[in-house]
Design brief:
The chain is about 40% helix and about 20% strand. It is α+β, with helices and mostly antiparallel strands. Bound molecules: 3,4-dihydroxyphenylalanine (DAH).
């Protein structure tokens, strides 16, 4: 009955059906058609029994080869199909995060930009870097020692009232806190400089600060300061005043000046508040500056010897000055922002202006 030729034809037919399969379902059906119990191959197998032993052996071998070939073809096609289907699924499930849908925004594609406070921080850093300062950072969470103790503000010191503090539920009561100013970064820098033996220090330290204040037009409970610290030999109050004046003109413009007024801070002696010409009235006097022509920006002074003692710097050998002021306040003054709370409200119409 069957001859080798029939088997070749059978394999060819199977091959044609297999390569015509397009989907997982197709190949499943084709696999049954060409290799299942009712397939021509299986029928040929059943017919073997009627043959004499010699022919049976010969035909059996050929059928075995045919089945091996067909099985391999089915498997290969099955793999190809599975791969193609996976590709198609991945393609259709893909999310294009950069996709811009025309018409959803008023004008052409808009690009985001840094928040005004970040832009202001960058601009202030640039001014100070231009004057030879380095930029450093410290942690938002501090211990009492860094935020107060090392800055000559011992526990129960009345000056603590200057900073309404958020304490963390960590360790002993009131031992860990959200820094109320960037001054503790001074301590980190001085301690590191002592350990590494790399005094002098000329650094500015921008960062986020926290106080238990009710937000209003001029205060935010989370705000930003930039701290300055110079520790070197022969540093005088004149260096401090000159630095503040150069910074003021460079950041606000040459028509804006600075002045220092006596003040008290535990970590500087003498201490001063520094004020700059009111940017609204340019010194004429207006409501914003309470008719004084000046606006307070921050505090400054000569580093108190008690602070040098706390970090192990010899106050007979080194002197220094420090300053600290509000970054948000600078942005407010330079851009005449009536209410500082606008900085946190995320109203895109406000933010887009800068
Ligand atoms: N840390 C002070 C505050 O937040 C500001 C300040 C005053 C910083 C005098 C200084 C300084 O470095 O010398 O109120």
């Amino acid at each position: 009955m069957s001859s080798a030729l029939d088997i070749d034809g059978l394999v060819k037919d199977a091959e044609a059906s297999i390569s015509a399969a397009r989907t997982t379902e197709d190949i499943r059906q084709v696999a049954t058609e060409v290799g299942g119990k009712r397939s021509p191959l299986a029928e040929a197998h059943r017919a073997l029994g009627a043959l004499d032993p010699g022919a049976r052996k010969e035909l059996g071998r050929l059928l075995y080869e045919a089945r091996t070939t067909i099985d391999a073809l089915v498997e290969r096609r099955r793999t190809e199909i599975r791969f193609a289907e996976m590709q198609a699924t991945m393609e259709s499930d893909r999310i294009d995060l950069s996709e811009f849908i025309p018409g959803t925004v008023k004008s052409s594609p808009t690009r985001g930009h840094l928040h005004l406070v970040s832009q202001t921080r960058d601009a202030l850093e640039d001014v100070f870097v231009g004057m030879g300062f380095e930029v450093a950072e410290g942690p938002d969470i501090e211990t009492d020692w860094f935020n107060f103790g090392a800055l000559n503000i011992p526990p129960a010191h009345p000056a603590r009232g200057m900073w309404d503090t958020f304490y963390l539920n960590l360790g002993a009561p009131e031992s860990t806190l959200l820094r109320t100013h960037t001054s503790p970064v001074q301590i980190h820098l001085m301690e590191a400089a002592v350990v590494n033996g790399d005094l002098p220090i000329h650094a500015v330290m921008p960062g986020r600060c926290y106080r238990r204040d009710t937000p209003d037009a001029r205060h935010l409970p989370v705000f930003h300061q930039i701290e300055g610290l110079v520790v070197d030999k022969g540093i005088t109050f004149a260096d401090l005043a000159g630095t503040i004046e150069v910074f003021t003109a460079a950041y606000f413009g040459s028509d804006i000046h600075s002045r220092l007024r006596p003040a008290y801070f535990p970590f500087t002696e003498p201490s001063a508040e520094f004020e700059v010409t009111c940017t609204i009235c340019h010194g004429e006097g207006c409501r914003t500056c309470s008719q004084t022509g000046w606006i307070e920006l921050g505090g400054c002074g000569m580093v108190d010897p008690a602070v040098f003692d706390a970090v192990g710097i010899d106050p007979d050998q080194w002197t220094g000055f420090a300053f600290g002021f509000g970054i948000d306040r600078c942005a407010q003054m330079r851009h005449q922002i009536a209410d500082m709370r606008a900085l946190n409200e995320n109203d895109i119409r406000f933010l887009r202006q800068f």
